[in-house]
Amino acid sequence: MLNIVIFGAPGSGKGTQSERIVAKYGINHISTGDVLRAQIKAGTELGKTAKSYIDQGQLLPDELIIDILASTLDSFQESKGVIFDGFPRTIAQAEALKKMLAERGQEVSIMLDLDVPEDELMTRLIKRGQESGRADDNEETIKKRLVVYHSQTSPLIDWYKNDGKYQHINGLGSMEGIFAEIAEAIDKI
C-alpha cells in the first residue's frame, strides 16, 4: 500500500499535485474537508456527530476525525493506497493516523512537504482569489492562515523527520518539474 501524506501551506499546490499523484499511481485521495462534508450530507452517524460540533463552532475531536478517515479508508475496495490531504495537522493527529493505519497492517509511506516561500504563496493565493472569487483568499486572511499553518506544522515536520518519512519538495517551478521531483521521491520508496 502506498500511503502518502501531502503537506504544504495554503497555495503550495497540494490539490494540483494530489490529482497528478492519484492519476499516476492509481491511489485514492482523501481530503479531510471533502470527507466531512460528504458524511454530513449523507446523514451518517459520524456525519451527525461532526455536524453537532461544527454547528457549535467547535473543532472536531481527533478521535472523531480518525473514525471518519478510517471509515473512508475501509470503504475503498482494492485500493493501492491513499493520499491524505489536510490531515494530520498536529502531532496528536499524526500519532492517531499512525495507530489507525497500523491496525490495518499499513503505515505512512512518505510525507511530501511542498515548500514555497511566503511571498510566492501570497501572490498565488491573491491571484486564486481574484480568479475564483474565494472570499478567504485576501491578504489579511491569508496572513492569518499562514501563521496558523506555520505554528501547527513546524512540529509535524520534525515528527515525520524523526519517523523517517519526511521528504522536502521544492514547490517553486513548473507544475511538471515539481511533479517530477515528487514522482522521483515516491518511486524510491
Written account of the structure:
The protein has 189 residues and is α/β, with parallel strands linked by helices. It is built from eight helices and five strands; from the N terminus they run βαβαααβαβααβα. The protein has helices at 14-25, 32-42, 45-55, 62-75, 91-102, 118-132, 139-162, 175-187, and strands spanning 2-8, 28-31, 81-85, 110-115, 166-170. The protein is globular and about 40 Å long. The N and C termini lie close together (11 Å). The model has no long low-confidence stretch (mean pLDDT 91).
How are the SSEs placed, and which strands pair?
Blueprint: E1 2-8, H1 14-25, E2 28-31, H2 32-42, H3 45-55, H4 62-75, E3 81-85, H5 91-102, E4 110-115, H6 118-132, H7 139-162, E5 166-170, H8 175-187
Parallel strand pairs: 1-3, 1-4, 2-3, 4-5
Helix content: 55-70%
Computed CA radius of gyration, to the nearest angstrom: 17 Å
Sketch the topology as an H/E string, one letter per element: EHEHHHEHEHHEH
Sum up the overall morphology in one term.
globular
- Low-confidence region ranges: none
> What's the number of helices?
8
Helix- and strand-based class? alpha/beta
CATH superfamily: P-loop containing nucleotide triphosphate hydrolases
TL;DR of this structure?
The protein is α/β, with parallel strands linked by helices. The protein contains eight helices and five strands.
